[in-house]
Design a protein that fits this description.
CATH class: Mainly Alpha
Distance between the termini: 24 Å
Largest sheet: 6 strands, antiparallel
Number of strands: 8
Number of helices: 7
Bound molecules: adenosine-5'-triphosphate, magnesium ion
Mean pLDDT: 91
Number of domains: 1
Length: about 220
């Protein structure tokens, strides 16, 4: 995730502070309101390498911006917020506020997920590979709670990768908040069977959650 060129957390990006970056986008603090963040598409040279199908998707997005990752995340958010209670959604998914045109290009504006004191919340990825802080069983329990929430509400969020989940203290343990729901509306499959059949969707969510728990145990073996 951090071996490719491009902005890193804490660095300056077009006069805005970087919170994080993924395969496609950089997320910076919104200077108009620091409780918000802005996500910008990264230039092709700074994106991670992906397979042919995703390269095609990226190429189509350059020709038609409504197909890009920001629009996908906005569509996912609109879909979910139309059918789930606001408070329940807020506890599990970062709130999307809209897409804005800025001098640096279009940006998706979201509420920032932070710790109680306003500091950046660590991603699960950071807690596994950069700055371990919690034992594996505690993180695995949070994955299970998140998995149950997805299953309860039939949410086809398949991209359960550690960079998409931020970790917040909660009672005696922790809870996960997803900051990237675009997989609810866009996937890598040519024929998205698991989106059409609930039984396949449930199986896929369980598989992805299990894989994530295995990654956690592998990264933090001493504590599992
Ligand atoms: N709402 C938010 N609040 C706080 N931090 C955020 C938020 N959204 C994104 N981030 C930070 O930015 C990073 C990358 O965001 P995001 O997953 O949306 O980018 P991406 O390029 O779409 O990712 P992917 O690699 O999954 O395609 C996250 O790991 C997180 O550190
Ligand atoms: Mg992501």
């Amino acid at each position: 995730m951090t071996t490719i060129p491009g902005p890193r957390p804490g660095e300056d990006w077009n006069h805005m502070t970087v919170i994080g970056r993924g395969a496609n986008r950089v997320c910076v603090v919104d200077r108009r309101d620091t409780r918000q963040c802005l996500k910008f598409m990264l230039p092709a040279s700074q994106r991670t390498r992906v397979g042919l199908r995703q390269r095609m998707q990226r190429w189509r997005a350059t020709r038609k911006p409504a197909r890009d990752e920001n629009h996908a995340e906005l569509r996912a958010w609109l879909q979910l917020s139309a059918r789930l209670p606001a408070e329940d959604l807020k506890d599990h998914l970062a709130t999307v506020l809209g897409i804005f045109r800025t001098i640096y290009g279009q940006a998706l504006c979201c509420e920032r997920v932070t710790l109680a004191d306003g500091a950046a919340a660590p991603s699960l990825y950071a807690l596994l590979f950069d700055q371990p802080q919690y034992p594996a069983p505690m993180l695995c329990a949070a994955v299970t709670e998140f998995e149950q929430w997805l299953l309860r509400h039939r949410i086809p969020l398949f991209d359960l990768n550690a960079g998409n989940l931020l970790v917040l203290p909660h009672g005696d343990g922790v809870r996960l908040v997803c900051v990237d729901a675009k997989s609810v509306v866009s996937g890598k499959e040519l024929v998205p069977l698991s989106r059409w059949f609930n039984v396949l969707a449930r199986r896929k969510i369980r598989r992805r959650a299990q894989r994530l728990r295995e990654r956690i145990r592998a990264a933090l073996p001493a504590s599992s």
